[in-house]
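Following up on my earlier thread - several people asked me to post the actual chain instead of describing it. Fair enough. Here it is, all 280 residues.
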Amino acid sequence: MLLVCLVNYSENKIMKRYRAYAKVNIFLKIRGKRDGYHEIVSRFMRVNSLYDELFFMPKQEREFKIIGDFSCDTEQNTIYKAYLALKVATGSESLEELMATHAVHVKKHIPAFAGLGGGSSDAAAFLKMCNETLNLGLSLHGLAHIGSKVGADVPFFIYNYGSANVSGIGEVVEEFVEEILDFEIFTPKLEISTPKVYGIYRENFYNPVNEIEAEKLKKTSSLEILENMSVDEANDLYKPALQGYPELKDYYKERWHFSGSGSSFFRSADKIYKQAGEIR
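Reply from S.P.:
Thanks for posting it. Predicted structure:
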């Protein structure tokens, strides 16, 4: 009976392609520490022009398989971690059968180790693929809860907001209604370790933002933040990343901002610089 269901799914849903969008951090401030993790307050904005594509592909071998340009082993891949978390949460036999008969094919466009959330976005897309394909009936909140066990940024991608204020250790996602900007993004060929950057911040730069300033930032438009805050004012992790990876200074350009723990720099591709009369 299960195989019959999967045949139906293959006709209607299995080959559907899902987009896993990148994000940038308009601002990223540290609020404090909780249970060994840093609490943040940040504005995430989806990058509509940059995304990975995921879809299921039939295979012969029964073991879990991911097809794509990844440098890590399958066991370290966020998609595999999302599969394990979903299997524990649902106990779904149809999920196990689906992944025994189909590989996850990923067309990678979001660079890794770049502060753009590619791994988390892939994990979120995979969870939504399985939920739709197998009719698991999980709500977005349910998927976000499962995703939070995979990575701090996964819940944002589950909700698919264009812009959101993200706080806690990533589990609190509040939509922020505003114009979604177009971005220019530059990612140096530099692999930055997020744990290393946070470690440097904790040792040398620890200065949590106060509640008044955090609330003010959460109410300020992304365009205004990009216009009025410098790269290090907007992102508490820029100076720690620079200390850990001094070569970053060779890539910084005036009026560009820094996403996550790096290594990507970004700026608005339209309003800010066109209004300033800058030739790009």
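The first strand starts at residue 18 and ends at 34. That should answer part of your original question.
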